[in-house]
Design goal:
Its main location: membrane. With 351 residues, the protein is mainly beta. The protein folds into three domains: 2-120, no CATH class; 148-302, Zona pellucida, ZP-C domain (Immunoglobulin-like); 313-351. It is built from one helix and 19 strands. Strands 1, 4, 5, 7, 8 and 9 form a six-stranded antiparallel sheet that branches. Strands 11, 13, 14, 17, 18 and 19 form a six-stranded mixed sheet that branches. A four-stranded antiparallel sheet has the order 10-12-16-15, with no helix packed on it.
Length: 351
């Protein structure tokens, strides 16, 4: 049998960092496992793991302290996918790996690889005691910029970000990830909450990407672009607070066929419900490490009838004080007239 190898890598543009990868990853497609070796510019202090299995011992590696690191992935574990091919005949074994230069977090300079080893059936008969060893071809690497994601709340008509709105105004929540190769990625928006500027937080989208209360934010619509999601909603605010801040997590996965969309219950007939406050010790994202935290611009939300009430109060106060001033003027003038008459009477009596 012959092993073929195809790699699709995703790389962020270089930014100042004390370490980085040298050259291309070296891959060995073994009979029972796949080994990937990376060379680094400086002593490696991060980790390498299979995407979606970072917390499993057999699926991650912290081979640190040298200018090289590696990971050996069992073919029957860690979510490795094996597919039989009829033309050409053989087996296609695929997995997804991340090399992270931080020991805990995913950063923009990390690299993701989708690795496919093709074990091709040779067109000859092999009999004992002849043995056939696995051979690896030179890996082919495709580089792509890591998507840069943002969250913004805009006017649904002008599509411009809003900063001051009134309760009940229609808004458009929009999540966008920009990438030079959008067809290589899938995105899922999840774990959203709203905060009042003083620490009070309410969850409005759960860790599966489903809405909790449609009166605040309904289930999202993915599109119109490949890495886009959006949903219209009405402006709301906390009692006795003006500032409203929205924050979400965006999960990025390497595309493998069609991008999955969260399957959420229909909230059309849901009644208004009381939502519990989010605890600060409660995680805001799933246990997957491929999450990006995005925060929309801060928004001031005013009560829609506040200006009208203020206007009426101002007019009433002006009218009251105007009448009061006229009354005071009349009293003052009558007092002055009485004093003048009194002085005139006294003068005549003295004469």
């Amino acid at each position: 049998m012959i092993a073929w190898l195809l790699i699709f890598a995703t790389v962020a543009r270089a930014i100042p960092i004390p370490n980085g990868q040298l050259g291309r990853a070296e891959i060995e497609c073994g009979e029972d496992s796949i080994e990937i070796v990376f060379l680094t510019e400086d002593v490696f202090q991060g980790r390498v793991f299979v995407v979606g299995h970072s917390n499993e011992t057999e699926c991650s590696s912290r081979d640190i302290g040298r200018k090289t690191t590696s990971i050996v992935i069992p073919k029957n574990k860690c979510g490795v996918v094996t597919t039989r091919s009829a033309s050409p005949p053989g087996l296609l074994v695929s997995t997804k790996v991340m090399i992270s230069f931080h020991d805990e977090f995913i950063t923009k300079v990390d690299r993701g690889y989708e690795i496919s080893c093709f074990y091709m059936e040779a067109e000859k008969t092999v009999t004992y005691p002849v043995s056939v060893s696995m051979a690896s071809l030179q890996p082919v690497t495709e580089n792509a910029e890591m998507p840069r994601c943002r969250y913004e709340v805009v006017d649904p008509f002008s599509k411009k970000p809003v900063s001051v709105v009134s309760v009940g105004n229609k808004l458009l929540h929009r999540w966008v990830c920009d990438s030079g190769s959008p067809d290589l990625w899938c995105m899922t928006v999840h774990s959203c909450f709203v905060e009042d500027g003083s620490g009070t937080e309410i969850v409005i989208l759960n860790d599966r990407g489903c809405a909790i209360d449609r009166y605040l934010l309904d289930n999202l619509e993915y599109g119109p672009g490949l890495l886009q999601a959006q949903k219209e909603a009405h402006a709301f605010k906390f009692a006795d607070r003006i500032v409203v801040n929205f924050q979400c997590s965006i999960k990025l996965d390497i595309r493998d066929g069609e991008c999955p969309v969260p399957k959420c219950p229909d909230l059309t007939h849901q009644k208004p419900r009381l939502i519990n406050k989010r605890s600060h010790s409660e995680p805001i994202s799933s246990d997957d490490n491929n999450d990006i935290q995005v925060r929309a611009q801060s928004i001031d939300v005013l009560e829609h009838d506040l200006s009208a009430i203020t206007s009426h109060l101002t007019e009433d106060c002006v009218s009251y004080y105007a009448l009061l001033s006229i009354s005071m003027l009349c009293i003052l003038m009558s007092s002055m007239f009485t004093a003048a008459v009194f002085r005139l009477v006294l003068t005549r009596r003295k004469l």
